[in-house]
């Protein structure tokens, strides 16, 4: 009986997680493509990546890791840096656009979470469902944003580090064939759990602190970080 209850809860969690994962991935990759497009690069538009269709942006391993570990990655947007007036600045801007978008989505999710908690009916089933969706949205977006700042290919942080420290590119080329498995092993082994959990918790609590100030929330709407 206990086992069936546990698996039922896991199924419920996946039903909540799946839609917010798609939105988080869509926002992340769309932001990469949009910024590159604004810098004069037509490649993302030609590749069909300037779309809100999340299916265009999914990476199977990365999406699975995001669902299981709350940290993952999407299919990288192809760019052509020759169109940038300043290549170094352009690459850094495009790389940081995805995580930045995830943090924006997390903040918006927590904002509506607070609004529903403050003004919504506690007895309403629909309000309860939306509150949970918004909570998971904040968690997944923060997890996706922080994880992608890690300087390991193909994550966004590796592009930023390569521009700030060009010598690291040689090392990245050597590990390129194994990059997906490196990330999966790091996640599955739990090696990243503590540092990423701490970073995620800090960002979550900071964003939630801003929301509480903006909405003047009273203690009857508590929210603790899901990462610690």
Write the layout of secondary structure elements.
Blueprint: H1 2-38, H2 43-46, H3 60-69, H4 87-119, H5 125-147, H6 156-164, H7 168-175, H8 179-189, H9 193-215
Features:
mainly alpha, globular
Strand content: under 5%
Low-pLDDT parts are none
Report the helical percentage: 55-70%
User: How would you describe the oligomerization state of the chains in this entry?
Assistant: single chain
Q: What does the overall shape look like?
A: globular
Q: Distance between termini?
A: 28 Å
User: What is the typical, i.e. mean, pLDDT?
Assistant: 87
Coarse structural class: mainly alpha
Biggest sheet, in brief?
A: none
Q: Radius of gyration from the CA trace?
A: 19 Å
What's the order of the H and E elements? Answer: HHHHHHHHH
């Amino acid at each position: 009986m206990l086992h069936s209850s546990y698996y039922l809860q896991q199924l419920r969690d996946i039903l909540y997680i799946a839609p917010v994962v798609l939105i988080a991935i869509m926002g992340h990759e769309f932001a990469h493509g949009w910024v590159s497009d604004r810098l004069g690069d037509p490649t993302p538009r030609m590749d069909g990546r300037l779309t809100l269709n999340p299916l265009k942006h999914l990476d199977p391993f990365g999406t699975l890791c995001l669902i299981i570990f709350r940290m993952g990655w999407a299919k990288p947007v192809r760019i052509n840096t020759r169109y940038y007036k300043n290549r170094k600045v352009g690459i850094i801007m495009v790389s940081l656009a995805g995580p930045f978008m995830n943090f924006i989505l997390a903040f918006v999710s927590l904002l509506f979470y607070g609004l529903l908690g403050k003004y919504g009916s506690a007895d309403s089933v629909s309000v309860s469902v939306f509150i949970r969706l918004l909570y998971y949205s904040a968690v997944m977006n923060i997890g996706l944003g922080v994880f992608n700042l890690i300087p390991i290919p193909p994550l966004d942080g590796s592009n930023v580090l390569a521009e700030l420290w060009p010598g690291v590119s040689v090392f990245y080329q050597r590990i390129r064939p194994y990059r997906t498995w490196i990330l999966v092993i790091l996640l599955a082994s739990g090696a990243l759990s503590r540092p990423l959990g701490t970073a995620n918790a800090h960002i979550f609590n900071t964003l939630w602190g801003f929301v509480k100030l903006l909405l003047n929330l009273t203690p009857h709407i508590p929210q603790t970080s899901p990462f610690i």
